[in-house]
Amino acid sequence: MSKFIFITGGVVSSLGKGLAAAALGAILQSRGYTVRLRKLDPYLNIDPGTMSPFQHGEVYVTDDGTETDLDLGHYERFTGVATRRTDSVTTGKIYSSVLTKERQGDYLGATVQVVPHIIDEIKSFILSHTDNADFVICEIGGTVGDIESLPFLEAIRQLRNDLGTEKTLFTHVTLLPYIATAGEIKTKPTQHSVKELLSVGIQPDILLCRSSCTIPEDARKKLGLFCNVKPERVIEAADLKTIYEAPIVYHQNGLDTAVCEHFKLQASAPDLSRWHRIIDHIHNPDGQVTIAIVGKYVQLLDAYKSLRESLIHAGIANKVKVNLTWIDSDNLELLEESLIGVNGILVPGGFGERGSEGKIRAIQYAREKNIPYFGICFGMQLAVIEACRHLLHISDASTTEFGEACTPVVGLITEWLDADKLSKREASQNMGGTMRLGGYECLLTPDSKAHQIYQTTIIQERHRHRYEVNMTYREALEKVGLYIVGVSPDKALPEIIERRDHPWFIAVQFHPELKSKPFEPHPLFVSYIKAAIQQERLI
Ligand code: GLN
C-alpha cells in the first residue's frame, strides 16, 4: 500500500506548497521511489475551468481532459508523472458527488452530514486510484485556520488514525517573516499556525519553513521546542533564484532524509544529476533572447504559468537566458513601439474580444517583419483572421466568439470525437466543461516544418477551446502562404498552421506548454527559441 504525505500550509497563502510538494516528489523519485501527486482545493467551484485567470491563475488541463489547478502543472514539470482526473478535487466536486448519491438513495435513509459523509468522500478520493505508488503526496489547498479547509483537515486526521504513523506523514509549510527593524526572523506566526493545526487534532511531523534568509540555529531549536517537532525536522526553505533549485536545496536541507526516517526507510542516496544539469544551464547561459508575449492577463504572471516555464525550458535546452516582455494587447498605441527589437513574438491562449485587435496587429507585425511568431490556441485563430483580413482582403473576417460574424473564419465547434464518442454542443449549453478538452491526436503533413520539429507524423497534445478555424478557407489560405499542416485524425479539425516564406511562423490549436518539462523541453518551444537566437544574431 502507498504511503501518504499530506502537505498543509500556514500563516499566509502563496507560500509555494505546490512547488514544495512537486520538489519533494522529484527527490523521492531520485531515490528510486514511485510517486503520485494530488491536490485538494477548498473552494466550491466544481473545477477552476469557469474561474477567471485573474482569480485563480492558469487552468491546467490533464491528458484525460480535466480542468485543474495550476499546481498540477508543477507536479508534472518536476516528476514527469502525468496527472489525471483523480488527482484533483474541490469541495464543490465532493459535495456534488455526495448530493448525487443522496438523490439516488445510496445512503439508505440516513441523515446526510458533513461527518461522516463528506469526510468519507474526501478519504475515498485520497485513497483511490493511487496506482500503488510508493508515495502519494496530497496537497491541501488554502491556509490552516480557514473555515473552508476544515473538512479536508478532518479527513487527513482520520486517515492518520486509520492507517497509522507508518503510512502517513504531515508536512506543514509555513512562513518565518524577517523583521528588518528587529534584524530577526520571527517564529511566532508559525507557532500559532501549528497551534491551529493541533486544535483540529493534527501534529505536524515536518515543518518546511519559507523565509527570505537562512534560519539561525536558535530559531530552529525554538520552533522544535514549541511545535513538538525534532529540530532536524524543521527544514529551511529560503527563497531560491530559480524554482528548479528546489529539489537540490531541499535535499541538502534534509527534507527527504526526514521523510525516509519517519517511514523507517533505508533508501539509497538520491541521484540529482538531472537537476544539477538544469541549474548549470540556467546559471551559465551563453547568450540571451527577448520574447514578447502579447496578451490580456499580463499583469498576473500566474495566468501564463506553464507558458513561462516552457520558455525557460527551451532556454535551458538552447543554453540561453529567455527574457520575457509582457505586452498588454489592450494598449494599441504603444503596441508596435514595444515590439521593436524583440527576437520573437508570441500570442498565447485567450478568451473574448477585448485586446484581440492588438494581438492581430502584433501577428501582422511579426509576419511582415520576419520576426519568429508562435501562436497558441487563440494565437492560431487570430493568425488565421489576420491572414484573411490582410492577405485575402476579407475585411470583416472574425470569430463567432465575438458575436455574430459576417465572415466567421473561426466558428464554434459543434461536434468532435471525445474518447471515440461523438460530442455535440449547442451555443446555449452550460459553460462549465463544454470545451474540447484534453489530449487528442493530430496528424502532421510529411516534410512540413512541424513534422521536422516533432520528427514524427502522429502527435498527441492537450486542448482547451470552444472554437475552431473553419476548414473551408484552407485552399484560399494556402494560396497566400499559410498552410494547415496538422489536422485531427478525421481531418475535420485544423490543429497546426505554418508559413514557409517566413523564418519561423507556426501556430497551434492546442497547448504545447502543458507538456513541457525542464528535463524534456517541448520541441516546438526549443525550435522557436532557436529561431529567436538566429534573429538576435541578425539584429
Ligand atoms: N477562445 C478560444 C476558444 O475558445 C481560444 C481558447 C484558448 O486560447 N484556450 O476556442
Structural account:
By secondary structure, this protein is α/β, with parallel strands linked by helices. It is built from 18 helices and 25 strands. A nine-stranded mixed sheet has the order 13-12-14-15-25-24-23-20-21, sandwiched between helices. The chain has a seven-stranded parallel sheet with strand order 5-2-6-1-7-10-11, with helices on both faces. 36% of the residues lie in helices and 24% in strands. The termini are far apart. It has two domains: 3-42 and 84-278, P-loop containing nucleotide triphosphate hydrolases (Rossmann fold, 3-Layer(aba) Sandwich); 286-412 and 468-484 and 492-538, Rossmann fold. Strand 23 (482-487) and strand 24 form a beta hairpin. The structure holds glutamine (GLN).
Question: How do the strands and helices of this protein lay out in sequence?
Answer:
Layout: E1 3-9, H1 17-30, E2 35-41, H2 53-56, E3 60-61, E4 67-68, H3 71-79, E5 88-90, H4 91-103, H5 114-127, E6 135-140, H6 150-163, E7 168-175, E8 178-179, E9 184-185, H7 188-199, E10 206-211, H8 217-227, E11 234-238, H9 246-252, H10 255-262, H11 273-283, E12 287-295, H12 305-318, E13 320-328, H13 332-339, E14 344-347, H14 356-368, E15 373-376, H15 378-390, E16 397-399, E17 407-412, E18 415-418, E19 421-424, E20 436-444, H16 449-454, E21 458-465, E22 467-469, H17 474-479, E23 482-487, E24 494-499, E25 505-508, H18 523-538
Parallel strand pairs: 1-6, 1-7, 2-5, 2-6, 7-10, 10-11, 12-13, 12-14, 14-15, 15-25, 16-17
Antiparallel strand pairs: 3-4, 8-9, 17-22, 18-19, 20-21, 20-23, 23-24, 24-25
Helix pairs in contact: 1-3, 1-9, 4-5, 5-6, 12-18, 13-14, 14-15
The protein binds glutamine.
Glutamine binds next to strand 21.
